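tokens incoming
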């Protein structure tokens, strides 16, 4: 090598870069800003993987409670409430008739770190797994009394440390083992019972586990980019989605129809009809026109997705910095207008995306009640306050 030629320069980190390596056609870089960035050129492409942990918040919707997962302890909070008759203007802070209340802080007794956790919808059951075992607790909350916690010790012998936990019903818990195998338990204060074992065909660990609102169906995505759908009532696998070239980033079930929404690591969105065993007509039309990575530069990796339960035509998804509302009705309206003008449908990408960047860093987005959206964020100030003074300044060479 006699001559070095500069191909392109990119500024995708806010602080010093400490390490770089090549992964296929991507340059992977990491540094003091804690982001892991993948970039390439041409075409100009970069992906920032957030430092915000996934699955760190779980909602008990019918009990108005929320579970926070930390590296070595768990917290359960009861959300505040308001009796305001109207919501007022956008951004208006409503007066609270009851303040948020921390009900429980549960610490691990050893140096083992919490891998995953789950809380039932009625907040009567709490489960978490650390690096050696799974713990199950029965919770009792009475009016004007502290939360009572009872550990359930007689778990089936097949229960090992789990990579994912999910309550498909208030009394049924699914555990995803490291081998990709799924265990379905019926929880009980005296002796939980193993109902079924869903075997793994390839032995690959799961990346995502999601249950349907009715509790009958469950979707599991593994690191081999395979998405399987199971029937937890009849103990059988229903179908497998077509394998995609990118990893799964988020899953969501339709609140009324038997449809599964899948967002991939390149932010492409597909909607799969379990009943018809094929992509929905909206999914095929949407992906012919565009997807989120085309419609909004630097949106970031999608961390969570859900349907609006009141208006399922709206899809809500978020990265660590941005919240997006994708409205199916606007896409249909645009297509109708274009058809009446007798013009070909071109690649239009902004027509149905409504994006807000008022929150950061977004940790979780969920629905507590049909008309109540819960947003959990970690403000940057709360992170930088624990960093050395030099890292609080956005400059290089610190």
């Amino acid at each position: 090598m006699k001559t070095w030629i500069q191909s392109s320069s990119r500024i995708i980190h806010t602080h010093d870069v400490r390490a770089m390596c090549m992964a296929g056609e991507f340059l992977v870089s990491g540094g003091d800003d804690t982001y892991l960035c993948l970039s390439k050129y041409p075409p100009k492409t970069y992906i920032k993987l957030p430092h915000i942990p996934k699955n760190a918040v779980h909602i008990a919707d019918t009990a108005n409670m929320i579970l926070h997962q930390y590296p070595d302890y768990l917290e359960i909070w009861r959300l505040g409430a308001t009796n305001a008759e109207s919501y007022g203007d956008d951004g208006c802070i409503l007066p609270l008739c009851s303040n948020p209340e921390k009900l429980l802080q549960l610490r691990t007794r050893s140096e083992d770190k919490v891998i995953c956790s789950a809380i039932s919808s009625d907040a009567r059951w709490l489960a978490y797994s650390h690096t050696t075992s799974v713990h199950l607790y029965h919770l009792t909350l009475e009016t004007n009394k502290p939360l009572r916690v009872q550990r359930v010790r007689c778990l089936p012998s097949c229960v090992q440390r789990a990579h994912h936990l999910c309550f498909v019903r208030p009394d049924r818990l699914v555990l995803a083992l490291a081998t990709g195998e799924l265990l379905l338990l019926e929880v009980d204060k005296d002796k939980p019972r193993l109902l079924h074992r869903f075997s793994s065909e390839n032995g690959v660990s799961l990346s995502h586990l999601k249950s349907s609102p009715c509790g009958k169906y469950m979707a599991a995505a593994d690191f081999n980019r395979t998405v399987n759908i199971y029937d937890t009532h009849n103990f059988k696998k229903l179908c497998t989605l077509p394998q995609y070239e990118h990893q799964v980033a988020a899953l969501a079930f339709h609140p009324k129809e038997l449809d599964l929404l899948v967002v991939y690591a390149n932010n492409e969105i597909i909607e799969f009809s379990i009943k018809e065993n094929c992509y929905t007509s909206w999914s095929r039309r949407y992906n012919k026109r565009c997807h989120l990575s085309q419609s909004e530069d630097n949106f970031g990796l999608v961390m969570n997705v859900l349907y609006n339960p009141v208006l399922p035509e709206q899809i809500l998804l978020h990265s660590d910095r941005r919240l997006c509302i994708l409205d199916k009705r606007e896409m249909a309206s645009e297509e109708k207008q274009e058809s009446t003008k007798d013009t070909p449908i071109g690649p239009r990408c902004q027509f149905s995306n409504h994006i807000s960047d008022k929150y950061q860093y977004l940790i979780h987005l969920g629905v507590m009640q049909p008309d109540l959206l819960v947003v959990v964020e970690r403000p940057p100030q709360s992170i930088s306050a624990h960093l050395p003074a030099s890292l609080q300044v956005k400059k290089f060479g610190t």
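note: Residues 328-340 form the longest helix (13 residues).
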